[in-house]
Amino acid sequence: MRIKVIRPHSRADSPSDFQEYTAKKLQSWASPxxxxxxxxxxxxxxxxxxxxxxxxxxxxxxxPYVAQEAVKAEKEGYDAVYTTGEWDVGASIARHMVxxxxxxxxxxxxxxxxxxxxxxxxxxxxxxxxxxxxxxxxRWGMKDFVTSIVPWNIPVHESWKRRDEIKDLTVRLCRKAVxxxxxxxxxxxxxxxxxxxxxxxxxxxxxxxxxxxxxAIGIRTTETFVNLKIHKSQKSYPPQA
Length: 241
Fold this sequence. Notes:
Blueprint: E1 2-6, H1 16-28, E2 35-39, H2 56-60, H3 63-75, E3 80-83, H4 91-97, E4 102-104, H5 105-114, E5 120-124, H6 130-140, E6 146-151, H7 156-159, H8 163-181, E7 185-188, H9 192-197, H10 200-207, H11 214-227
Parallel strand pairs: 1-2, 1-3, 3-4, 5-6, 5-7
């Protein structure tokens, strides 16, 4: 099985050691026999979520490039596409353009979390993302499950250099959500922070509730779609002429 994994960051922006590290980690979460090709769109610098405030507008800048990579993936013979952006960055567009499965992290992670508990704490990068998060939760039917939205308020472009700080902060935020908001499951809406910088298992050991590895869940769900030959609904995502 061959899956193209699309990261919603400009290759020019993303540190080379971060690109290599994430590719290895993603492959480690795949099943034996699954081959992942991890791509960062080769576009100009300062595009997407690595720099600037993470708003719906800024994330939307990446959507056409993610969709184009999905079209390339189908032509290149991949069995499926997995987009690691939690914010529906181009995934819905791509489903209109290809027949292979396109799985994105956000709804998969949240619906999985709802099978484990009734009160979900959603970790986001910064306060500016909250409004967009609320809109997506309504769209996905998850508004009643997410009982707290907690920001790190650390810019993504600083995260790779502030790894030690982010680990301690993540534990503190999750512990507070469990103690004060009665959070039962933790979901990260930034893979850079969790699981790439901070191990979900480490945080879970500290706070005592499930902390999801959203990337592993996304990859394994994509594999399931391929194995079971699950495809999109043509009525929901009619193909583009």
